[in-house]
Amino acid sequence: MIDVETEGVAPDTAVLRPHGRLNMVLAPRLREVVATTVQGGRSRVVVDLSSTDFMDSSGLGALIAGLKTARQAGGDLRIASVPEQVQTVLSLTNLDRVLRPHGTVEQAVGER
Amino acid sequence: MSADGVHHRRLRVPATPECLEQVHALLADLLVDVDGVADADRTSFEIALAELVANVVEHAGAHGAVGLTVELGAGPADLTADLYDDGPPVDVDPGAAVLPDALAERGRGLALARAAVDDVSYALEAGTNHWSITRRRRA
């Protein structure tokens, strides 16, 4: 399941919150949700990973796909509240510079 | 537990995306029995295990019902997993797996597994795909 939050943020911003394991089961859904969100005019996407129990390479691929989708629309995709396991996956794949973890959703939203 | 202090768990499941949850649960159940496994060892081992199971599931994809056997071991020295599946043979050398470009959307699984554990190997044994991984315990 992926929550989409648009209340209390700027009209060009959305906060997405995947629940459970971000793997081959949920990753295709995240790609769809990012694409729909960006098409709907919210190209500044924050993915809140606080409820993500585990992420594998397909979840990582979905974040990269989302980053490209958001940037093509003039926006960005940021990750926030990154659990230790996700941080490990980012480090092992050298992607912690491309997908730089933000401490909180507020920090990820606030930085322009 | 066997005489050498190694605990084991075994599972046989159809190789479908749903089996991933069962494999994570099997590992959690195994580690209840083993004292003092460091978070870093568990996390790294679980990352590699999940990648290899996902690979088997993906490869099995269009080939009808493929059975997957997962054998996990946890002892004082290391964490191990052996995966056996009767899907089509895999043409891959885990030792040659490298990370793709930063903005690639796929193709990281095997390289990630290799980076997370000490050994990843593959062999075709009498028509069965056999993957194995070993993570030596750091703490």
From TrEMBL, chain A:
Q: Which SUPFAM superfamilies match?
A: SpoIIaa-like (SSF52091)
Q: Which family does it belong to?
A: Belongs to the anti-sigma-factor antagonist family.
The protein depicted here goes by the name: Anti-sigma factor antagonist
PANTHER family given in the database record: ANTI-SIGMA FACTOR ANTAGONIST TM_1081-RELATED, ANTI-SIGMA FACTOR ANTAGONIST TM_1081-RELATED-RELATED
Top-level taxonomic group = Bacteria
**Taxon lineage:** Bacteria, Bacillati, Actinomycetota, Actinomycetes, Pseudonocardiales
Where's the STAS domain?
11-112
Q: Which PROSITE patterns match?
A: STAS (PS50801)
Which NCBIfam families does the entry link to?
ant_ant_sig
From TrEMBL, chain B:
Q: What protein name does the entry list?
A: Histidine kinase/HSP90-like ATPase domain-containing protein
Keyword Transferase on entry? yes
According to the entry, every stretch annotated as the Histidine kinase/HSP90-like ATPase domain falls at 13-129
Alphabetical list of InterPro entries matching this protein: Anti-sigma-factor_SerPK, HATPase_C_sf, HATPase_dom
Per the UniProt entry, what species is this protein from, by scientific name?
A: Actinomycetospora straminea
Entries under Pfam families matching the protein: HATPase_c_2 (PF13581)
Keywords (A to Z) from UniProt: Kinase, Serine/threonine-protein kinase, Transferase
